[in-house]
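Consider the tokenized backbone below.
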């Protein structure tokens, strides 16, 4: 009778299966269809009754495990259902492999926009894929994973260029994508052939669910809980006065919104996560916007609902893409929540690469991604340019920028055609400007002219480099440029007024984790596409800037301390531990650096 009762209970469910590792069931694994959430029993068995609306079943990867990978990169944490008929019972089994990933690395990239046009796939392979291979080599034995934050493809070109989500997945296999990829759906990953109607959003995301993976799900790596959400409510409204290309039924418009079904699932998902666990939510459209006054506003219709859920956790992060720029939001109302908006792998939709070979985003930051290093519940991150090493900033001598804007005929014609653009021909003498690519409000930025510390302020204006990399050459070729790709206002620029036009400029940036970045330029400093080659990256502790950290630097800082700052030395270099004081602690740090260098 007990056997028959057990059989009857199983038969009451239409989706069931087991999750195993090395032949043994894994207990306590969450399994879901996007609505229901159940846990596996001690034998790794799960069963539930699904409405089968989403057409899939997935499990939430537990920490200390990895999923099986298809084609070397595609995590097999989900399965399409065999039938949408709720009377059909079906079995879906999954297999895990055990791994110690308490320490792991996650690469967060966004907006690849592959479309089989303008050599985008060749640039992608040579740039991003090559960078990922370098990351794998540098990681060594540390497990490394990746998340792409939406717009893997470009919807309007699904038909025009015959490149869609299936082609993207085939390319990743062909390029030997070197790590597990957890994808996020973007607005350009929706099927544009679906006309506006009651089910447009659901139907337009069907290709994603069938080809790529569920459009919302979760997974654990080590001690961190990651959640992927679909925050695009696709509308695709057609307007009478507009013509649409083949394969496109409407304007491809949308709202930033997390559906009620997802929010209900998210509450069930988070109910299984302890408040001490770090939570990282992955979106395409940012939850928050930043304006020219560096204040924040909600970008999604239900940003506050999402952040209220996340704020219960000791540390919660949102990572997003969509804007093709970098910014960080730390909303005052939600002190435990930080959003990291990450710029685009494709830069300015590959356009600056086409015209000048420089992959640059519209906020002036290089095309790149974020590298997160996680140890237990400690999360650290850093921006990684794809083509510029580990550079975190770019310096401008605005005197040379001004001269270019005044004398270049193409720039003058461009500004006449586009009068709303910033005209640097009219700025004051001896300004210097700094673009700190992934600046966060808790970072510290200092600028010195020679040995004098300058007053430095954050400004929101156009980055001059992107103007060179895209706007000017495109206007020179065509007599116009697409405002879709043009230079945007950047919120991570800093300005200072120097006393002279010739003294060198030294800058120091200290990030959230105490990492110190130092660069300097001689003046006048060129304003051209190769201007960064004339910047000098300085080594922490190299007080006299001779390229070495040695006893001469110890003597230099001792003299600086004894003279109460009156000997020749940039104070941001003398303050080698970046605590805004120059004292014996800085001397000890340099001695420590010398000793460590001699023993390596």
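A designed sequence for it:
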């Amino acid at each position: 009778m007990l056997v028959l009762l057990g059989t009857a209970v199983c038969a009451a469910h239409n989706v069931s299966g087991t999750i195993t590792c090395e032949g043994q069931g894994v207990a306590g694994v969450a399994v879901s269809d996007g609505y229901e959430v159940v846990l596996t029993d001690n034998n790794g068995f799960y069963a539930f009754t699904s409405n089968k609306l989403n057409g899939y079943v997935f499990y939430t990867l537990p920490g200390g495990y990895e999923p099986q990978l298809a084609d070397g990169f595609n995590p097999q944490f989900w399965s399409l259902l065999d039938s949408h008929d709720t009377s059909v019972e079906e079995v879906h089994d999954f297999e895990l492999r055990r791994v110690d990933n308490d320490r792991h690395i996650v690469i967060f990239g966004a907006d690849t926009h592959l479309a089989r046009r303008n050599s985008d796939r060749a640039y992608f392979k040579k740039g991003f894929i090559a960078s990922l291979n370098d990351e794998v080599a540098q990681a060594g034995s540390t497990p490394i994973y990746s998340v792409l934050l939406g717009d893997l493809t470009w919807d309007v070109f699904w038909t025009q260029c015959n490149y869609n989500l299936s082609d993207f997945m085939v390319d990743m296999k062909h390029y030997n994508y070197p790590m597990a990829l957890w994808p996020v759906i973007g607005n350009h990953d929706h099927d544009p052939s679906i006309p506006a109607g009651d089910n447009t959003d659901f139907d337009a995301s069907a290709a994603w669910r069938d080809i790529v993976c569920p459009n919302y799900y979760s997974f654990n790596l080590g001690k961190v809980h990651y959640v992927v959400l679909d925050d695009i409510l696709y509308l695709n409204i057609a307007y009478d006065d507009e013509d649409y290309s083949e394969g496109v039924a409407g304007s491809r418009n949308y709202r930033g919104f997390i559906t009620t079904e997802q929010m209900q699932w998210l509450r069930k998902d988070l109910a299984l996560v302890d408040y001490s666990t770090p939570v990282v939510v992955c979106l395409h459209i940012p939850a928050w916007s930043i304006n020219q006054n560096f204040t924040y506003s909600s970008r999604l219709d239900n940003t506050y609902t999402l952040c209220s859920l996340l704020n219960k956790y000791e540390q919660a992060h949102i990572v997003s893409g969509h804007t093709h720029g970098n910014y960080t939001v730390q909303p005052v109302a939600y002190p435990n929540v930080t959003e990291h908006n990450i710029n685009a792998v494709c830069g300015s939709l590959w356009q600056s690469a086409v015209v000048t070979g420089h992959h640059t985003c519209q906020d002036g930051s290089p095309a790149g991604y974020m590298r997160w290093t996680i140890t237990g519940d400690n999360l650290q991150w850093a921006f990684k340019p794809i083509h510029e090493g580990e550079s975190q900033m770019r310096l401008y001598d605005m005197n040379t920028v001004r001269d270019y804007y005044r004398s270049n005929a193409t720039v003058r014609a461009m500004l006449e055609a586009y009068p709303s653009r910033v005209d640097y021909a009219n700025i004051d003498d001896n300004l210097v400007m700094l673009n700190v690519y992934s600046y966060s409000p808790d970072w510290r930025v200092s600028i010195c002219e020679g040995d004098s510390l300058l007053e430095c302020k954050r400004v929101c204006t156009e980055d001059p480099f992107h103007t060179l990399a895209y706007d000017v050459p495109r206007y020179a070729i065509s007599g116009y440029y697409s405002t879709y790709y043009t230079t945007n206002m950047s919120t991570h620029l800093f300005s200072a007024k120097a006393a002279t036009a010739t003294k060198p400029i030294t800058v120091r940036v200290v990030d959230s984790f105490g990492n110190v970045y130092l660069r300097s330029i001689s003046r006048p400093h060129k304003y051209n596409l190769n201007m960064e080659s004339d910047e000098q990256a300085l080594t922490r502790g190299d007080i006299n800037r001779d390229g070495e950290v040695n006893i001469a630097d110890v003597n230099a800082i001792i003299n600086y301390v004894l003279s109460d700052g009156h000997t020749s030395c940039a104070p941001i270099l003398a303050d080698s531990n970046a605590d805004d004081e120059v004292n014996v602690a800085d001397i000890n740090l340099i001695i420590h650096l010398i000793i460590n260098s001699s023993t390596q």
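The first strand starts at residue 15 and ends at 21.
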